[in-house]
Amino acid sequence: MNLNFTEFYSKDIETTLENLKTSLNGLSYQEAEERLKVYGKNVIEEGKKKSIFALFMEQFKNVMVLVLFAAAIISILLGEAADAAIILAVLLINAVFGVVQELKAEKAIDALKKLNMPYAKVYRDGHLMQIKTDEIVVGDIIEIEAGDIVPADLRLIESFNLKIDESALTGESVPVEKNANDLLAESTPLAERTNMAFMGTIVTYGRAKGVVVSTGMKTEIGKIANFVNLQSAIDTKTPLHEKLEEIGKYLTVGILAIAFIVFVTGLLYKRDVFEMFLTAVSLAVAAIPEGLPAVVTIVLAIGVQRMAKRNAIIRRLSSIETLGRVEVICSDKTGTLTQNKMNVVKVYCNDNLSENLEHEDIVAKTLLRIMALCNDVKLDLVDKQPQFIGDPTEIALVKFAYEKGLNKNAIEKVFKRVYEIPFDSVRKMMTTVHEVKNDEKLLVFSKGAVDVIINKCKFIMVNDEILPLDQNMYQKIIQANKEMTSNALRVLAFAYKEIDKNELENKNTIEENLIFIGLVGMIDPPRKEAYEAVEICYQAGIIPVMITGDHKDTALAIAKELKIIDTSKDELSQVLIGTEIEKLDDQQLKEKVKEVRVYARVSPEHKLRIVDAWKSHGKIVAMTGDGVNDAPALKAADIGIGMGITGTDVTKNVSDVILADDNFATIVAAVEEGRKIYDNIRKTIQFLLSSNIGEVVTLFLATLLNWVVLYPIHILWVNLVTDTFPALALGMEKAESDVMKRKPKKTSENIFAGGLGFSILYQGFLKGLITLLVFFIGNKLYDHKTAITMTFMTLSLIQLTHAYNVRSNINSLFKMGVFSNKYLNLAFVASFLLQVVVLIVPPLRELFKLSYLNFSQWTIIILASISIIPIVEVVKYFTRHFHKE
């Protein structure tokens, strides 16, 4: 495949397309597939990942592991080859487990990156479609618009008022004006190539179409060594990790101190120096929770995958903990609380409000033309059926016109667009300028918010006659608008005017002195699942707040239906409009936000102030957004939520969470998952630390009593067999029944709050004491070797049975269903079988210095191991009653 790659900015559009062997219809599916194989994926390559061998060697960087490794070598020199073999085997198995955990975490993070892969609008076989940006190839025809991140290097072939922020590439902070028709010299520097759009730069205004000339590492940004990736890397270290690392440091110091005391006490009792050294080091290796951060990462990553299945794509692991603590959700109305399926149901023109256009006069035809042409919807016929691609509001307008006989594609040939002023959330209107065949005049078509458009109009067309827009007609329009908005309709106003071609030169006057044509009311009903989601919010202590650019009456009607506002209080005191926000200073707004549940006619700047006002109360705030101007508010919020369907690349890029379905209920589901994941991490911590404390208590008290209850290898093996599988299984635990019936946890709340620290301590001591009791009984009834074997089995089995206790710190295990966590059941069976194998395989039994156990001995072990369940159940019972009081 020989494509002629050259300085495309110095070539005209026709030559560029010819050199790249493509056309305005784009590539065929087959050709695109072949080019993908030849040129590779459109990605910026990352640094090389660590090899499995490097990960394996990292497992031995722990000082205590190295000490134990040295101890094994000393054992060989002293003739204790069997002990050395077991220690080395356990260390190797432990290292393998560590590598597997890290690979799992890495794999999960890679999966998250794939979930975050953005999409681009590409023409294939003449049809516009969305594909993942990594599938873009040279020769593809791409559409870009305000808010998009340019997905590859493009030679522009069409442009309308296009401005691009190229600071990521050139360092130039002011957006660059682009023009597809510019023809430049070959010596033109990068920053002045105005007919090009470069990968990673941001479209700030206008729209364009371009042909891909470079992808991946061949792009300008791909060539830069110090490339700063615009897509925020998914961070694997969370605030939770940092807390755990800090806790781990304190625990390490404490455990090392206890290990030293065990060593010294053993020497005072004249125990073998090397044996006590091995015991102390083994205790330190087993009890120091160095694997806790890795387990937490895996639990977080598994949780994120589950969230993705519920349409919430998490871009940063650190967001999960914050999600579970959200106290206020500021949500857009359209498409998030509502279905975003617009249908035109009311039309006001010719001073008449009706459910349809009743007359085919000039006014009606003009209104339909504006509806069909003043938008960026793409109309495609698939099997003779119309397919609309674009904004749902604009689709409703084009669809209505299509049903009235106006095919957008057909009339665009008659009314060719020559200029446009795009819609944005500040202007709240859009204007297109069209030339008419065989006519010297140009037609200006505008649509937008009623209050904006009506203030741009000096005239009105009624019954084919153009009249001055006097106060009487003005009030009639306002009344028609009020009637529609009070019925929860979204209302747009439409206007037009004729201008001479030379008037187009003065861009500032294009939208002045317009002729008012009419209003269109569209219904966008609430999502069915939004009703329950709002109710769940209030049950969970979360305040739902609706934010919209729509009219106050429309917003209030939807909010009442969804029960976002409290109808027992004054309704109007719970609604605030943008102009009222502007009159309030920050302190006044801070006081006002506590009672306001609906914000109407707001701009992105208002959103930012609302976030700041809530945060000044110390609240954790989630904010949704879809437009490029929403980025500051999303960044300011504790959780920025971007829209996966309607959101721009820029908003997705700054978001912590992306909603694949743009659904408010998904936000609530994500909060629930966040709470569940945090709960499960606490359970994992409780299980691991109580197990470690159980081991420490067993060895420490036994040494003080001058009992030899376990050998070093036993400690290492118990830690290996009983820690990993149950800890991960607890991370898969289902949400507790009250997870969305309790208030959010405060940011200042410690990970050990709510009695977790007490539970870890008492349960750890309990396990240690029960294990020592079994040794005492075994030593009284049987020989010392059998007592050690019983202790070894009890310490392992009690940790496995205790994992079932940890499933809830308050709720009864029996109410939850003892075996309802299938992952924990599998972990129990796997760990128990590994433990039993050591006992029943004669060579292993000899290596571990164990004796065969009979039925009565097994009975003691099993009874002791399950005794922790009723004891913890009693504590849970009193805890529940204490909470009720």
UniProtKB/TrEMBL annotation:
A GO cellular component annotation in the UniProt record: plasma membrane
Domain Cation-transporting P-type ATPase N-terminal: 7-80
Pfam families (UniProt xref): Cation_ATPase (PF13246), Cation_ATPase_C (PF00689), Cation_ATPase_N (PF00690), E1-E2_ATPase (PF00122)
Catalytic activity: Ca(2+)(in) + ATP + H2O = Ca(2+)(out) + ADP + phosphate + H(+)
Membrane-topology descriptor: Multi-pass membrane protein
EC number in record: 7.2.2.10
Protein name, entry field: P-type Ca(2+) transporter
Organism in which the protein naturally occurs: Caldicellulosiruptor bescii (strain ATCC BAA-1888 / DSM 6725 / KCTC 15123 / Z-1320)
